Amino acid sequence: MSQTTDPPNGEADSPAAAARDGRAVSTLVVGAGIGGLLAAITAAERDPGGRVVVLDPHPPGGRARCDHRGGFLFNRGPRGLYVDGPADRALTGVGVDTTQGGPPQLDRGALALLGGRTHRFPSGPAASLRTTLLTARQKLEVARAMAALWRADTASTDGRSLSAWLDELGVDGVPRQFIEALVRVATYAHAPDTFAAGPALANARAGTRPGVRYLDGGWQSLVDQLVAIAARRGVEIVVSTVQRIDPTGGSIRVEAEGTTWSAANVVVAAGGPDAAAALLPARPDSWDRLAPPVTAACLELGIRGVPAHRFLLGIDEPLYGSTHAPPADLAPEGHSVVHLMRYQPPGDEQPASEQRDRLREVATLMGISAGAIVEERFLARMVVAGTLPHPDTGGLAGRPPVTIAEHPGVLLVGDWVGPTGLLLDAVAASATEAGRLAAERSATMVTA
Ligand SMILES: Cc1cc2nc3c(=O)[nH]c(=O)nc-3n(C[C@H](O)[C@H](O)[C@H](O)COP(=O)(O)OP(=O)(O)OC[C@H]3O[C@@H](n4cnc5c(N)ncnc54)[C@H](O)[C@@H]3O)c2cc1C
Fold first, then answer.
1. What are the tens digits of pLDDT across the range 111-121?
2. What is the DSSP secondary-structure string of 45-75?
3. 28 neighbors 261 (Cβ within 8 angstroms)
4. What pLDDT, in 10s, does the model give residues 27-63?
5. Does ligand 1 have an atom closer than 6 angstroms to the CB of 239?
6. Domain boundaries, the chain
7. Fewer CB atoms near the end CB (10 Å): N or C, the chain?
8. Which CATH class is domain 15-61+220-290+390-444?
9. What is the pTM of this model?
């Protein structure tokens, strides 16, 4: 088993004392969201002799936890796993079954909302021909823009915003709004002027094909499987809040609710840059250039029956509605779970009550009557991602890396970290990398 080096002092909370009373670990993970759990499992798998401990004051899962409401299972806002994306591959790689569930039901009366009026959503060739959303000329424009979207070199478009990319393409009016809406639904971000084109277009492609899967049992099913796999790997999950990380000595001291841990590596998977910075001695300067978090208002409905229109996408308003159960198993027999969402632009000031009212109107447009609603929950401002890849900082390349140069052994995980993907894809990619680096480092630490 790898151990941390002893510093030359004899304090009660020194690494030597920590080792004596069981508070010395190879890898300590802050946060038991999907990122923290995945990093812990990866570290434990690759350093089987090491000790891996995860600290979190809440039940595991973080933003991926689900809540039971009167027989319905609500993800905390809509959740779709990108099929075969980085998160899907990482989860499958550690033994999680991600295959149970189904795709969004775009072929069942899907709608597009423009100028307050609904139209058939152009989800396939037949619907595209028949929709009144676009004129014949606009349909050709959208086809041209979609072809460009599939052709785009997403790595070399990072220095441009989505708006700049659309300007260069010369696409305007409703076709432009349509492409922006496709990007929105695939990224959860409503910020075309400040969103790097590369990741925006890459996710719009992935969202179209192979698309996303709504999971049976919600994302709680991922969390429950990860917790079981972590236990089999010997990972310990401890209920505790981390207050401070001191990486200045030979080993890293972690203060957590009366206990001081000593660790060779600390993985910070606490959710976002502010949560991570609060634990470090100082906020790294480069983080000040990060774009603000991406947020959304969510309305969750448990209803009797199934909506006549199972999907709705706002074209000139940042609105979304989708029936997650069916296809996923989240509702009692004869009932459905519908998620509605308003993608909030940066600096959004619309009052929460107005957002909720508008989302209720979207539900009505989908054919959901007030009398059919059995359970309802509104979440006014959910943080979807800790930052948005900004064109001025090089897009994905401008996000903080997993390692922090001034603090060897402190590793970052999250949807705001590293050069790969958005949302859970970024979480999983950074978690796998952090787990791998932690295992490598702990295996090479000097044995006391
Ligand atoms: C409404 C909504 C919809 C989304 N939809 C999708 C989607 O469709 N597809 C997709 O890929 N992604 C989606 N996401 C994003 C995805 O849910 C998140 O990226 C992911 O769950 C974040 O995981 P994480 O482990 O990095 O952080 P979190 O889940 O935030 O976990 C962080 C954990 O750290 C703990 N913690 C914080 N501070 C401390 C401390 N000091 N000490 C100990 N523990 C601490 C917290 O309690 C928490 O459990 C969505 C997010 C939202 C909000």
1. 999 999 999 99
2. HH-TTS-EEEEESS-TBGGG-EEEETTEEEE
3. yes
4. 999 999 999 999 999 999 999 999 999 999 999 999 9
5. no
6. 15-61+220-290+390-444, 66-82+294-385, 134-208
7. N
8. alpha beta
9. 0.95
